[in-house]
UniProtKB/TrEMBL annotation:
Gene3D superfamilies: NADP-dependent oxidoreductase domain. Pfam families: Aldo_ket_red. This is NADP-dependent oxidoreductase domain-containing protein. Transmembrane segments: none annotated. Residues 10-75 form the NADP-dependent oxidoreductase domain. Coiled coil: none annotated. GO terms for molecular function: oxidoreductase activity.
Length: 109
């Protein structure tokens, strides 16, 4: 990971996301998926778990307010936030990790 690469924030633990989820009686994941869908972004969540598939489908049962949308939009970090490196903390140690050479190179920065 390069020195200037920001760590990927855990939005599921973000107090704003948690508060919005509580107010709508939904999960944090549903809030984030709904935010994307309500922003006009096609959302294609991956799951093989039937209960999670059902939860994902329920994002269309809620409507975020304009204030909630603004709060979530404020998380945008510009171009730096849209640059994603797969080498998040601990991933290179996983036996399934396919990019060993890339991980070794990123440690040298």
């Amino acid at each position: 990971m390069s020195k200037d690469q920001a760590k990927v924030p855990n939005l599921l633990q973000n107090p704003v996301v948690k508060k919005i989820a509580r107010e709508h009686h939904v999960t944090e994941v549903q809030v984030l998926l709904r935010h994307l869908a309500q922003s006009g972004i096609a959302v294609i969540p991956k799951s093989t778990n039937p209960s999670r598939i059902q939860l994902n489908d329920q994002i269309f049962n809620i409507q975020l307010t304009s204030d909630e949308m603004k709060q979530l939009n404020d998380f945008d970090q510009g171009e730096a936030g849209r640059t994603f490196f797969f080498e998040f903390e601990g991933i290179a140690a996983r036996p399934e990790y396919p990019l060993k050479e890339s991980a070794e190179l990123s440690v040298q920065y």
